[in-house]
Amino acid sequence: MTEINFSDFVNAMPTEDKNTVALRVTVLGGGSFGTAIANTAARNGCDTTLWIRDAKTAQEINEKHVNTRYLPDFKLDKNLKVSSDIEQAVRDKDLILVTIPSHSFRSVLQKIKPFITAQAVISLTKGIEVDSFKFMSEIIREELPQVPYGVLSGPNLAKEIVAGMPAGTVVASHSERVRFAVQKALHSALFRVFASDDVHGVELGGALKNIYAVAMGMAAAHKVGENTRSMILTRALAEMSRFAVKLGANPLTFLGLSGVGDLFATCTSPLSRNYQIGFALGQGKTLEQAIKDLGQTAEGINTIIQVRKRAIELDVYMPITNALYEVIFEHAPPLNIALSLMKNGHRSDVEFVLPHRDV
Amino acid sequence: MTEINFSDFVNAMPTEDKNTVALRVTVLGGGSFGTAIANTAARNGCDTTLWIRDAKTAQEINEKHVNTRYLPDFKLDKNLKVSSDIEQAVRDKDLILVTIPSHSFRSVLQKIKPFITAQAVISLTKGIEVDSFKFMSEIIREELPQVPYGVLSGPNLAKEIVAGMPAGTVVASHSERVRFAVQKALHSALFRVFASDDVHGVELGGALKNIYAVAMGMAAAHKVGENTRSMILTRALAEMSRFAVKLGANPLTFLGLSGVGDLFATCTSPLSRNYQIGFALGQGKTLEQAIKDLGQTAEGINTIIQVRKRAIELDVYMPITNALYEVIFEHAPPLNIALSLMKNGHRSDVEFVLPHRDV
């Protein structure tokens, strides 16, 4: 049992004074992003543990201070502890930051449930649970209904964070204390943590952006210009925010780092898997060929399937997502994407400014 | 005198029927964008005139159907008429589209005033009038107080438009008739015209974006990563929308083509003058050196001076614009830009979602 209640603890700690009791932070998941975030917290003076499933890897990182698999070129902070014992990692902590992939997210929460007392749980995972179409914040609420929770999302390439290049991210929570604690744990001169209370809006940005990286890759195969690329980005934001608003989010959240910021980073990275799959599809390859050439599939493909299904159920107009689905699964020509942009259905630029019926 | 009143005319014309009386459109200004837009209207079946100050150039384009100075590689529509007679160009028209640079915008409006009866006047010019800090829509209202008016702005490289690459733009007007007429005149399968009623928001996007192209160029000189570029883009949107809201605009407009769309195009074009001046400044050159190397100045420099002054008067927090000013005019190191992004003053991601005081 933790002796200090999470909320008392956060209240008691003034921002300015670095000499108070260190926040006890655990990051679940030792991929590149989890490692980078744990390293950031450790550098910030938090009492930080990184939980990794594999005991041998945990021991190796503890000894060498390098995550040879995911971030081989970076020396990690000496004070970062790595553990494969989940009870030890989770008990008596203040913040649990979860970077577990979406398909295992729920099962890891079930595993930590017996050790949760007053910890806050923050999802750093971008994605949607397959089949259930649940977001990570919803899984937290279902599995750990009592905990204070939040999500963190933004354009955050792990390699750039550990290299100390300036970056920003967004923590979203309905609890001011959770937002404050996450900012305290991770904010530094080179990693800026902005706050929001729009949990769904923030996590939807991270979950949906991969769809549009596929579209951008497909467009690149057709050598589109700046005008077209800008239109793809903007129409992507229009349908993302339209979808998000239907789920209760605030469209203005998409103006921020977790929305357009993450979308911009994703859509201007020709090396991302989503972009490359899109490029291959744009060249006229089938999905099977594209996956075979790339050696793996991309998150965006699964997101397209799920979001299209949900958009039909919710009656949300998502022409780009639909066009992608038709190209990938219904043999429509890749130029379908361009046509979807030019469709005359919705003529308002931003429908939350001027409703379509008033155009 | 026009025999058909502008408003009656628009009302009487159904969208579907292309065989009704053609809209009479005049584009003032024969630069690359003016020429591309006039060509678009002519292709759309409008009775279109392009007004160019120089009689010889006008005659040459009429004969060759090529604008050899600005768009030498493109054959223009045969039905496009070019005139250097401003009275003939403006009288008895339905739409006057003004693509005159901001420093001559007012004087051209004064020239056409005697010939204005029921025409609508639309500004296609991105910029701010030097000294007065007036936007183009304000100049229209001052010089032609009776006319229905609007603005058109978006990520619209002229060369891509005449080449028929898919593009989109935004027309903003308080008048539904003006919006409808501009959509009718310019909308086609390859050029999509979205509508908005946020005139100030739409024109501010086009006027302010050059500031951030300078910042992006400066950052590129320091080899920043994707995380930092995304943060510059997002913080740019934050301060643009903050400034615009102070002037009565809707922050959601910045989610659209004239906001983030145009900003994205500008910030990902390393060949733009603003970007190149920023790059030179980032390398530690003085403004004088940078201008000398480039052979000319960039619009963004003037915009920085004007917007900073206005932001101080309006008490709007614009850390990037300020930092740029300090680097260019007050000998601050170029890294100032990075520091301005990391300043801890405002910690909300999107202040219109979560006010700074509540973070």
UniProtKB/TrEMBL annotation, chains A, B:
Residues the record lists as binding sn-glycerol 3-phosphate: K126, G154, K209, D262, S272, R273, N274
Reactions accelerated catalytically: sn-glycerol 3-phosphate + NAD(+) = dihydroxyacetone phosphate + NADH + H(+); sn-glycerol 3-phosphate + NADP(+) = dihydroxyacetone phosphate + NADPH + H(+)
Binding site residues for NADPH: S32, F33, R53, Y70, K126, A158, R273, E299
InterPro entries registered for this protein in UniProt: 6-PGluconate_DH-like_C_sf (IPR008927), 6PGD_dom2 (IPR013328), G3P_DH_NAD-dep (IPR006168), G3P_DH_NAD-dep_C (IPR006109), G3P_DH_NAD-dep_N (IPR011128), NAD(P)-bd_dom_sf (IPR036291)
Annotated metabolic or biological route of this protein: Membrane lipid metabolism; glycerophospholipid metabolism
Keywords in alphabetical order: Cytoplasm, Lipid biosynthesis, Lipid metabolism, NAD, NADP, Nucleotide-binding, Oxidoreductase, Phospholipid biosynthesis, Phospholipid metabolism
Any matching Pfam family: NAD_Gly3P_dh_C
Record GO biological process: carbohydrate metabolic process; glycerol-3-phosphate biosynthetic process; glycerol-3-phosphate catabolic process; glycerophospholipid biosynthetic process
Binding-site list for substrate: K126, R273, N274
Any one cellular-component term (Gene Ontology): cytosol
Protein's cellular compartments: Cytoplasm
Top-level EC class as recorded in UniProt: oxidoreductase
GO molecular function: glycerol-3-phosphate dehydrogenase (NAD+) activity; glycerol-3-phosphate dehydrogenase (NADP+) activity; NAD binding
Domain of life: Bacteria
SUPFAM superfamilies named among the record's database cross-references: 6-phosphogluconate dehydrogenase C-terminal domain-like, NAD(P)-binding Rossmann-fold domains
Annotated ranges, domain Glycerol-3-phosphate dehydrogenase NAD-dependent N-terminal: 25-177
Binding positions for NAD(+) per the UniProt entry: G29, G30, G31, S32, F33, G34, A158, R273
The EC number(s) this enzyme carries: 1.1.1.94
Annotated active site: K209
Domain Glycerol-3-phosphate dehydrogenase NAD-dependent C-terminal: 198-336
Function: Catalyzes the reduction of the glycolytic intermediate dihydroxyacetone phosphate (DHAP) to sn-glycerol 3-phosphate (G3P), the key precursor for phospholipid synthesis.
Family in the record: Belongs to the NAD-dependent glycerol-3-phosphate dehydrogenase family.
Name of the protein this chain belongs to: Glycerol-3-phosphate dehydrogenase [NAD(P)+]
Organism this protein belongs to: Acinetobacter nectaris CIP 110549
